Amino acid sequence: MLRFSGAGVSDVGLVRSDNEDSAFVGPYVAVVADGVGGAAAGEVASATAAYAVSATVLARMGDEPEALLLDGIEAARTSIRRGIQEDLGRLGMATTLTAVACDGRRAVLAHIGDSRAYLSRDGALTRLTTDHTYVQRLVAAGHLRAEEVSRHPWRNVVLRSLDGDPVHEGVDLLPLAVVPGDRLLLCSDGLSDLVPESAIAELVTLDDPHSAAAVLTRAALAAGGRDNVTAVVLDVVDGPMVVGDGQLLGAVRDISNIVDPGAVRTGR
């Protein structure tokens, strides 16, 4: 059976006072969420999203990965909306979300925002996600060259995120044709904005996932660490089914950041 064997690191960085990134690393689900733009209660939005998606997948192992991810994201959106209604000081809170889920046979990626997912196979790195940002739209339209993105003053303007708006653009869903021996990287833009993909391609191949995640994070700190940094590295393995718990990282480790965890529907 296919599953993940991985680890992650989340660091506040060298500039910000609080970590608004959240992550979960488990054998059948992994999530990276980044509170958008330092907005009000970004840590609440990211923690709520990471919790809702991981809890949904863990409680319904065996269901189709696409359904689990979509249901988890909808649960997160509902909880974020409830959190805003309970405290208007959170108005505007939102988060990116990049997640993978596996049912033992198939793996699926869900993505919204500008965190990223990469696949490392045989030493070659492939970006799996498309940034939902203003500058990426300019690149797609031919108005901006890819090498100019890092210098554009609006490079961090996110056009699509997970928030409390009931009318929203959809999430990108991508079936992953992964095989044992593949390695996946989920990361916040605190890594991808500061570390070139050529360096990511090299560092992500270190022997074990924790070492790779730690060295990638250190590379972002060495490059200035101007944002929170989260890296989750997952090896795709073929092995017996294991207990589906995992590792919490960043803001989701503080349960007070999660809006009403008991409200997440984990049954059909």
Descriptive account of the structure:
- The protein is of the alpha+beta class.
- It has a single domain (2-259), classed as 4-Layer Sandwich (Phosphatase 2c, domain 1).
- 27% of the residues lie in helices and 25% in strands.
- The protein is built from six helices and eleven strands.
- A six-stranded antiparallel sheet has the order 8-5-4-3-2-11, with helices on one face.
- Helix 1 (42-59) packs antiparallel against helix 2.
- The longest helix is centred in the first third of the chain and has 22 residues, at 65-86.
- The protein is globular, with a radius of gyration of 17 Å.
- The mean pLDDT is 91.
Gyration radius over CA: 17 Å
Structural class comes to alpha+beta
- Strand runs, count: 11
Low-confidence stretches: none
Principal-axis shape equals globular
CATH superfamily: PPM-type phosphatase domain
CATH fold topology: Phosphatase 2c, domain 1
State the CATH architecture: 4-Layer Sandwich
User: Strand order within the widest sheet?
Assistant: 8-5-4-3-2-11
Q: Percent helix among the residues?
A: 25-40%
Chart the SSEs and their pairings.
Blueprint: E1 2-11, E2 21-25, E3 29-34, H1 42-59, H2 65-86, E4 97-102, E5 107-112, E6 116-121, E7 124-127, H3 134-140, E8 172-176, E9 183-187, H4 189-192, H5 197-203, H6 209-222, E10 229-238, E11 247-250
Antiparallel strand pairs: 1-10, 2-3, 2-11, 3-4, 4-5, 5-8, 6-7, 6-9, 9-10
Helix pairs in contact: 1-2
